[in-house]
Every structure is written in structure tokens, then in C-alpha cells.
Amino acid sequence: MDILDYTFWAIVPALITIVLAIITKEVVLSMSVGIGAGCMLMADMNPVNAIVDVIHVLVGTIDDAGNFLPGSITSEENALIILLMLLEGAMIGLFIKSGGSAAFARFLLNRVNTEKKTLFTTMLFSVAFMFDDYFAMLTNSAITREVSDKNLVSREKYAYVLDSTTFALCQISPISSWVAFICGLVGAGFVTAEVTGINPYQLFLTSVPNNFYAITALVFITLVIAFGLNIGPMAKAQRRTDKTHKLCDNEFGGEEDEYASIKVADNGTVLDLVIPIVVLVGTIVAFMLMTGGFFTSFSFADAISHMEGIKGMTMGFIVSLVFMIIYMAARHKGTMAELIDAAFVGGKSMAYGIAVLAMGWSLGSIANELGATEFVISVFDGNIAPELIPVVVFVVCAGIAVAMGGDWITYAMMIPIIIPVAVATDASLAMCLTAVIGGGALGANCSPVADATIIASMGANLSIIDHVKTQAPLAVICGIIAILAYLAEGIIGTVLAGYAVIAVLLAAIMILLNRSKV
How far apart are CA 394 and CA 271, in angstroms? Predict the structure, then answer.
């Protein structure tokens, strides 16, 4: 029998990658082995065909009709993400060159001088930039990481707050690259289920109170910061920093502080950071709305439902980058050659992260090629009570996101499937949608090959494995609470039952953690 008939193989390459990464702490090597193993499975263990499949997975192939089928780095969306990361790196390089980042860090250091203030400030910037997780984590870290280091916050705890806060906020943000992506998938699910009269954006907004994972995570992070709590490996990491002033055991793994080569202007002010960021946020929001047709229909809900988040962000970054160079030239921050060089240094600093991301996408493509969709559908074969469907969906999506290394991959695969399942079984649409969103986010928070995990580790300059092993226990706690909240709402029939479960369990956990406080 053909090996592809066994859909369990869909998760084997990711499992190999994760186990190797944990053992060796070499993420690129582990992902390379996982991709190789996956391509061997795709080629039915033929090594020559496996090499061909590696090229196809990464770059793409041409079908019998002469049509180009894009690979993980040539698909339009992934290519835009790569370009977006390069633009984000260039912008950060210019922030540093202008002296604005240093000036803002000095401004913060005069006021933010404790661990609690540092981490709450990091949360605040996540709120300000919550229209995209990549941008939020990279820009936030460019502003706050120096403050965190000076206040002796372990990189592990800083990365946890940076990553988990941003991720939770993007799940419930009313305007973001996430909501645009999710609404498009909901619309596809509505077509399959023949649902009419419901706007995908309206469903998203009304479902937000049911996103128990995101809400629990935000409350939990707030309590952890407010009470100075640590748990498991996070406690060990913070003890190390408190006793030895060593911020982390292992750094990210890319080139060490490439930004150090940038000659910082000596006339930098806080406004040199604030003004470009205000322009950047304004242009990104405008272009995101434009791609959704807002300036022709003037319907905010329709624009959100149809906007192309990544494309809008990329356009916004291009315009803002040009503005930043002109602004810095007018402010005498350096010659045009120096400004362009700073932008190139910033873009180059993203190379390692982009390489790891491309490998993560490739693992997701391989998993899908090996039958991940069929594997997921098979989980729902048989009779599952409607009140239990959100719980099952949450757990399954968390597992998929861990194995495939991405929440968006999980959403793309599961939302169009789950919407018809919910309609057919009379399960709550809002609960099922948020179960997919929250479950995918939980899995990504626990996966060393997830794109957001990689970006957060890059921003915190922390080993991906060290970030995952300290964040995962906290994420799992929130995940378990979310599962019980879904179960309570499903049985009792009101969202308030879910919140009652969350309140009681968080109170109990805080009492236990506070007693064992480090």
C-alpha cells in the first residue's frame, strides 16, 4: 500500500524536527532534517525524487498544463512576508541610525526602572502595534529590549511577554492582518455551508468574547507581571539573571548584533522615533483599508472583510521607508549613502530569521502534501456531541499548529472545514471559530518551528528552544483553562459560565504560584 495512505505520516517530519531541535538546540539543522525526511516520504523513499521534491517544496514546480505552482518562498503571500520582514529590518536600522531608538530608550530608562514597569511597558507597546504580530514584536523589541536588559529581566521572561501578549491581542484585534485573513477563510466556509445573511467580520467581532485562550492569556500575563510570578523553567531562568546578571543561556543564533555597525546620529530625539512610527501606523492602516475597498465603498465592515493585510502593510512600509529617509536627510542624520547603508544593515539582519521561516513554511507544505487535511477530517468522523465540538476543535488545532509550525497554516486548513461542520451539527459558530483561532495560537506558542516563535526569539535575541521551553508551560496552563471554559459554556449554554471557570481557575493558580513565588 502507498505510504501516503497513512495520513499519520503528515506529522512525522514536524515531530522529527521538534525532537531534534530540543536535543541538539540547532534549529536550522533540525528543520533541514525534518524537510529531508518529509520529502523522502513524499517520494516514497526514493532519494533522487526526494531531492527534486525539496526544490519543488521551496521554489515550486510546473504542472502538466504549463502552469507554475509556487513553493514555500515563491507564493505571493510568503514572498510578501519576506519583503515585509526586509522592510521592517530596514526601518529598524533607520530608527537606530536616527538616534531615535536610543533617545526613546533613555527616556524610558529614566521612568521604567523595575521588572514590573518594564514588562507592563512591553505590553503597552504590543497594544499600540497590535495590527500585526511581526511588526509589533520586532518594533517593540527595538524599543524596549535595551530597557529590559538594563533592568535585569531575563530574556526568557521578556520574550514570553513580548510573544504571548502580541499573539493574544492579534487574535482579538478588530483591525489587523489577522482579521483580514480569518474573515476571508470564514467567507469560504460560508460558501461551502451555504450560509447567507451573516457578514464574516460581524461573526468575528461577535465571537471575540468566546476566544477564551486569548483572553485567559492576557489576564494571566497581567497577573504574572503584577505579582512577579515565575513557574518551571521560567523561574530557573529568572534566578540565573537575578544571581549572575546573565540575561540568557543562549542567544538567537543569527549574526551577533549587526546593528552595532551602524553609526548612530548624535542629535537623536524621542520625536525621531515617534514621528516616523505615527506616519508608519497611519499609512499601514490607510493602505490596509484601501486594499479592502474602503475609499470606494466607505463601508468599514466590508473593507475589513476584504482587505489584504500583508499587501497593505507592505505598501505602508514602502511609503514610510521613503518618508523616513527624506525625514532623516532633512534632520541631518547622515549622508544619503549612510542612510541607505543603515537600511541595508537592518534588512540583512533579518536573513537568519527569514531562512528559518522559509523552512517552517516548507514543513507546513510537506505536512499538507502528506495528507494533513484528511488526517484532521478523520478526527471528526463519527458522532461528537455539539457541546464537545469546540473542545475537540481546540485540541486538534493546537496539535496541528505544533506539528505544522504555524497558526495561519492551521487556520487556512481548518476554518473552511469547521464552519460547515458547525452548521451541520448545530454547534456554536462563534465557539468553533474561536476554538480554531485559540487552538492554533496555543500550538504556535508551544512550537519551535512556528513563525511567531521565531520572530519573538529574534526580537528578544534568545534561542528559539529556550523561548519555547519557558513559554510553553505558561501557554499550556492557559490552554487547559480555555478547554474547561469551552466545556462549561457548551454544557450550560452561556459565555458567562466560561468566564466563571476562568476566574475561579486563575484565582486558584495565582494562589498556588504566589505561595511558591521565586
Answer: 44
Most confident among 7-21, 353-367, 467-481 (mean pLDDT): 467-481
> Are 401 and 440 in contact, with CB atoms under 8 Å apart?
yes
Digit-coded pLDDT (tens) for 306-358: 777 778 888 988 999 999 999 999 988 888 888 999 888 888 877 776 777 67
Task: For residue 353, give the nearest of 230, 223, 258 by alpha carbon.
Answer: 258
- CB < 8 Å & 24+ apart, contacts of 501-506: 502/212, 502/215, 502/216, 502/219, 505/481, 506/216, 506/219, 506/220, 506/223, 506/481
Rg of the Cα atoms in the chain: 23
* Concatenated DSSP letters of 420-466: HHHHHHT--HHHHHHHHHHHHHHHHHT-TT-HHHHHHHHHHT--HHH
What span, in angstroms and rounded, lies between the C-alpha atoms of 479 and 215?
11
> Where do we find the cell 531615535?
100
- HSE-CB at 438 with a 13 A cutoff on CA atoms is 36
Three-state DSSP state, 230? coil
pTM for the full model? 0.76
Is residue 97 within 8 A of residue 264, CB to CB? The reply is yes
* AA identity, residue 236: K
